[in-house]
Write a structure and sequence with these properties.
With 145 residues, the protein is of the alpha+beta class. It has one domain (3-144): Aspartate Aminotransferase, domain 1. It is built from 3 helices and 5 strands. Strands 1-2-3-4-5 form a 5-stranded antiparallel β-sheet. Helix 1 packs antiparallel against helix 2 (26-41) and helix 2 crosses helix 3.
């Protein structure tokens, strides 16, 4: 989906639903299943399509993005390098300092409990970062006063 596919009146959730429907193959099924798992853990997550139609789930910051390519569905965690991954779900973008990704190929399954745990850990990390930013802002404000 490119920018012309989304109308300004569509919510982020509607845009993601359209993206999934437009894929119309195994990639749409996988992306839809992963979206369902994300929303199980983070029902209040904000959904948006950014960067040429890439689905993005945010909760106090980006949790992950869901990209679809010809051979894979890629779920990229913005702060993945800082998340515990005892099940070893991260299998891509491992060389980076910050992000980590999960590539899912046709016919592959994923440990759903481990994926939900990654989403919960990403939420905790984002909440901690938000609290740190708020505390710094408060200190800066009192220092100036």
């Amino acid at each position: 989906m490119d920018k012309s596919d989304a109308t300004p009146k569509q919510s982020g959730s509607e845009q993601i639903s359209k993206k999934i429907a437009d894929l119309g193959d195994w990639r749409g099924e996988v992306l839809g299943r992963m979206r369902h798992l994300i929303l199980q853990v983070a029902p209040d997550a904000q959904e948006a399509c950014k960067w040429m139609g890439t689905p993005v789930w945010s909760w106090d910051g980006i949790l992950c993005t869901g990209e679809s390519y010809k051979q894979i569905v890629k779920l990229t965690f913005a702060q993945g390098a800082f998340l515990p991954d005892p099940a070893g779900l991260f299998n891509a973008s491992l060389e980076g300092n910050v992000r980590r990704a999960i590539d899912i190929r046709h016919g592959e399954s994923i440990d759903e409990d481990a994926f939900r745990a990654l989403i919960a850990a990403a939420m905790d990390l984002n909440a901690a970062a938000k609290a740190t930013r708020a505390a710094k802002a408060k200190r800066a404000k009192t220092t100036k006063a």
